[in-house]
Design brief:
By secondary structure, the chain is an alpha/beta fold. The chain contains 15 helices and 23 strands. The chain folds into three domains: about 150 residues, FAD/NAD(P)-binding domain; about 100 residues, 3-Layer(bba) Sandwich (FAD/NAD(P)-binding domain); about 130 residues, 2-Layer Sandwich (Enolase-like, domain 1), CATH 3.30.390.30. A hairpin with a 2-residue loop joins strand 4 and strand 5. Helix 3 crosses helix 4.
């Protein structure tokens, strides 16, 4: 066997790279981890952590603002935007220190390198650091270089200042007006956050609805909530150009309408980081959509794997971690493991939250699947009633007789936690019958999952079966009508 400097070299220190390197090092693998910026990647610095920190500050402001509904007399909300953003940045540092600091991984025996890497050949990397150019060899490689914010080709963006998620959390002054281009998760989350903090927000999207990967009914319900809080939506609208005059940004729409704003946020998707990696020299196949991998996260080179955003498959931190486990299991532990593409949950952390798992209703209908739709409103969730969080609905797509869960959409308080319950159920073949028969604590939001499963039982009832039961046991009660899909039990 050829001699290499390292058993495994991981390129990229975001969620996927950190998990991969950690698993490998704990398995006794001589590992190098290369990161050109800061360990933690997008999630810690420009994604999940800062956005949820900002959302929470905004939720606190909204709670104080609406405290009168709960019999609490609170003073008028006063926003210290600088303090809010300072908290966001402080939390990033706390997460970094607790989970991402290089010293943690060096303690595992990993050599952490601050630099940029490119393949010189299938088993060699050239690493550029601030002090030197270094060449190293590896037996195995995992590419985890992530993605970055996409800047669309809108005329004027080359001269007009704009924000992306990579710069948004460095703001020091709160804009009075904010136009957000993009109605996906990032755009919608930030629309609610800034609105609740007192900014006038307008969301522009060329499509006719928001959150196009989520359930259409639930996305519309969420839109109505956001509109009630003050968010303005301009949908089905294309942006022709942007320009600036006297520190005011003008967003020109194809309809000839003009949106004047103090700040512009681009939330128009993500672009994979594959440039400058020397993938051609390594013989690794890729497209503009990302590095091509199979179900084991293996690239076109047997000893080179890729995980996370750089593959273009998913832009989700939890999927980066899942793919890292798949890659490490196959490459390092030699234990077969495949990407679980059937049970991928995602959540937009607005208030109420919206979560999706498995197949959507249109996908199931397009496939010709036979299924029933079981709905349960948050108005019948007692815990939601006590908390004043009754906006929302659970929608489960499942087979009629076996109650096999095919997909779930949830709009409501703690949807992210509830969707996790369904993810466990789907992956392990737990039916709606089993969920309905499982004891859940009262009053809890988790009980809503059981109540939704109860609807499966209710639909199985039929007049003829009740009549048969009456005849056998001489019961004399009223025979219920045929099950009504709209009736909630």
């Amino acid at each position: 066997m050829a001699s290499y400097d390292f058993d495994l070299i991981v390129i990229g220190g975001g969620a996927g790279g950190l998990v991969t390197a950690g698993i490998a090092a704990n398995a006794g693998v001589k590992t190098m981890l290369i990161e050109r910026d800061r360990l933690g990647g997008d999630c810690t610095w420009t994604g999940c952590i800062p956005s949820k920190s900002l959302l929470h500050s905004a939720e606190v402001a909204q709670t104080v603002r609406t405290a009168g509904l709960f019999g609490i007399n609170a003073e008028e909300v006063s926003i210290d935007f600088g303090a809010v953003m300072e908290r966001v940045r402080r939390i990033r540092e706390e997460v970094y220190g607790d989970a991402d600091d290089p010293a943690i991984y060096e303690g595992f025996g990993i050599e952490v390198v601050d630099g940029s890497a490119r393949f010189a050949d299938p088993h060699s990397l050239v690493i550029e650091t601030a002090d030197e150019t270094r060449r190293v060899t590896g037996r195995l490689f995992v590419i985890a270089t992530g993605a970055r914010a996409t800047v669309p080709p809108i005329p004027g963006l080359d001269v007009v200042p704009f924000l992306t998620n990579e710069t948004l959390f460095e703001l020091e002054e709160q804009p009075q007006r904010l136009v957000i281009i993009g109605g996906g998760p990032i755009g919608i989350e930030m629309a609610q956050a800034f609105t609740r903090l007192g900014t006038e927000v307008t969301v522009v999207d060329m499509l006719g609805r928001i959150l196009t990967k989520d359930d259409a009914d639930h996305a519309e319900m969420l839109k109505e909530v956001l509109e009630s809080e003050g968010v303005r939506f301009v949908l089905g609208a294309s942006v022709n150009r942007v320009d600036e005059d006297n520190a005011e940004i003008a967003v020109h729409l194809a309809s000839r309408d003009v949106l004047n704003t103090d700040a512009l946020l681009l939330a128009t998707g993500r672009q994979v980081n594959v440039e400058g990696l020397g993938l051609e020299e390594a013989g690794v196949a890729f497209t503009e959509l990302g590095i091509t991998v199979n179900e084991k996260c293996r690239t076109s080179r047997r000893h080179i794997y890729a995980v996370g955003d750089c593959t273009g498959e998913y832009q989700l931190t939890h999927m980066s971690e899942h793919m890292a486990k798949v890659a490490a299991s196959n490459a390092v532990l030699k234990v077969p493991m495949k990407i679980d593409r059937k049970h991928v949950p995602w959540v937009t952390f607005t208030s109420p939250e919206i979560g999706q798992l498995g197949k959507t209703e249109p996908q199931l209908r397009d496939e010709g699947a036979k299924f029933e739709v079981y709905r349960f409103p948050y108005t019948k969730v007692d815990r939601a009633t006590t908390d004043g969080k009754t906006t929302g609905q659970i929608k489960v797509f499942a087979t009629k007789w076996r109650g096999k869960i095919l997909g779930v959409s949830i709009l409501g308080e703690r949807a992210g936690e509830l969707i996790s319950l369904y993810a466990v159920a789907m992956r392990n073949g737990v039916s709606l019958k089993a969920l309905a028969d499982t004891i859940h604590p009262y009053p809890s939001y988790g009980l809503a999952a059981r109540r939704a499963a109860d609807q499966w039982y209710a639909r199985l009832q039929s007049p003829w079966a009740i009549r048969l039961l009456q005849r056998v046991f001489r019961y004399r009660g009223q025979v219920p009508p045929e099950p009504d899909p709209e009736r909630i039990m």
